[in-house]
Design brief:
mainly alpha, 8 helices, 2 strands, 3% strand
Length: 150
């Protein structure tokens, strides 16, 4: 989904989606891998965990952060109806739904996510995409705290 959002942002046509008040949860790829390794190596780690960074951001915050990272304005909001036309059912599930997930079991177990480097992790995304690399994809169960970008 991020790859599809990147083109309008790079053209200076990016903006919040719908009201912009919906929360988005993210996780950096290296944090996700750390969570998996934590689950494999810690005998006390059993059952499901929320693989997200603490502190979900709103779509408006994410939009400002992505615009800052790309050095592009974010002046053109995308109405919810236009998002549904462009992305189909995924618009409601991935872009317009609000998900404010917290990594409670992870933080209770002492696992530390690398939040101080969020800007460093988000900044290379456009370069990775241009090289055909893989990037973290937003989902209701996955989160990067972009507040340090703003």
């Amino acid at each position: 989904m991020l790859k599809q959002l990147l083109t309008p942002f790079q053209l200076g046509l990016g903006g919040r989606i719908g009201s912009g008040r919906q929360y988005m949860s993210w996780v950096a790829l290296d944090d996700l891998l750390g969570i998996v390794l934590h689950g494999l190596h810690d005998a006390a780690a059993t059952g499901p965990v929320n693989a997200v960074a603490p502190g979900a951001v709103t779509n408006a915050e994410f939009t400002r952060g992505l615009g800052t990272v790309l050095g592009r304005p974010t002046l053109f909001p995308i109405p919810a109806a236009a998002a549904r036309v462009a992305f189909g059912e995924m618009a409601d599930e991935m872009l317009l739904a609000s998900t404010r997930v917290r990594p409670g079991r992870l933080t209770d177990a002492g696992f530390r996510l690398s939040l101080p480097g969020a800007r460093r992790r988000v900044a290379p995304l456009p370069r990775r995409l241009s090289r055909g690399g893989q990037i973290p994809i937003p989902s209701p169960d996955a989160a990067v705290d972009l507040r340090s970008v703003l």
